[in-house]
Specification:
This protein is mostly helical. Among the domains are: 108-160; 184-263, Photosystem II 12 kDa extrinsic protein (DNA polymerase, domain 1, Orthogonal Bundle). It has 12 helices and 4 strands, in the order αααββαααααβαααβα. The strands form 2 sheets. A two-stranded antiparallel sheet has the order 1-2. It is rod-shaped. The N and C termini lie far apart (155 Å).
């Protein structure tokens, strides 16, 4: 079948078919014309009118208020609250409980009650380990872990003993120790007496007595450290038990004494 026959077969219409095509074309033309001309005859809805805008604003305002209320109900600090959706009980952040405290002796539980977090408590312990005890409230303020607001809240409750109180306490403690230990007068005690001192055996006690004879007596207790075998650490341990009576020392008249009196004295060199 040739091209001409193909055209005649598919594009040749009878009278009824031609009328139908004309009607369809007319309807299509009418719709196209209507869609293009309706904007000149039909007014669009006024979405920007004051009434509509007012309703929109009211809706948005109600939504924001509801959201804010829900956020406020979601968490209430400083108290215990319940979650209505789950029925579980939750605990909020507890308010600090202030009371007098010594930052040098406060425990971890006491710091927690005062409002400090665990990392802040560790920072306090680290400071005391490196720098020693806090002597004044200003020392406590120097901690970087404690902010100004926290220090202002805690300052009135910080209790630190004054320097004088510490000195008095130390003196009382030393006096108390002295009363517990037996005392020995260096210029009259025998070797047997000195052996009663902890750390002084038969050898050292004998050396102390011999050295005392060479000196003619001790003027101060510190002269015991000149005895061979008496280390600084040992003297510091026994110092509280020693005292000297200067009235019983042997004195040499340097204007009348013969030379041999000076020959064996520890403080005089023989040339």
């Amino acid at each position: 079948m040739g091209f001409k026959d193909f055209i005649q077969e598919y594009f040749t219409f009878n009278k009824n078919e031609r009328n139908g095509i004309l009607v369809l074309c007319a309807m299509i033309a009418f719709l196209i014309l209507y869609l293009n001309l309706q904007q000149f005859f039909v007014s669009p809805p006024e979405f920007g009118s004051e009434e509509v805008q007012s309703k929109i604003d009211q809706f948005l305002g109600d939504a924001n208020t509801k959201k804010k209320t829900e956020n406020e109900k979601a968490y209430e600090p400083h108290r215990t609250y319940s979650n209505e959706d789950t029925g579980r009980k939750k605990t909020g952040i507890l308010a600090p409980e202030y009371f007098p405290f010594n930052p040098n002796t406060a425990t971890a539980d006491e710091w927690a009650k005062l409002g400090l977090k665990k990392w802040q408590v560790k920072a306090v312990a680290k400071y005391r380990h490196k720098a020693g005890d806090f002597k004044t409230a200003e020392d406590f303020k120097r901690l970087r872990a404690i902010n100004d607001d926290q220090f202002s809240s805690l300052e009135a409750y910080i209790q630190l003993p004054s320097v004088h109180e510490k000195d008095d306490s130390k003196a009382k403690e030393e006096q108390k120790d002295k009363t517990k230990l037996p005392l020995f007068e260096l210029n009259q005690s025998t070797a047997a007496d000195l052996r009663k001192i902890r750390g002084i055996g038969p050898v050292l006690s004998g050396r102390i007595v011999e050295y005392r004879k060479l000196l003619g007596g001790f003027i101060v207790a510190e002269q015991v450290m000149e005895v061979y075998g008496i280390e600084d650490s040992l003297f510091n341990a026994i110092d509280k038990q020693l005292f000297v009576d200067k009235s019983i020392i042997y004195k040499i008249n340097i204007n009348k004494a013969p030379a041999h009196k000076f020959s064996k004295h520890p403080y005089i060199e023989n040339n």
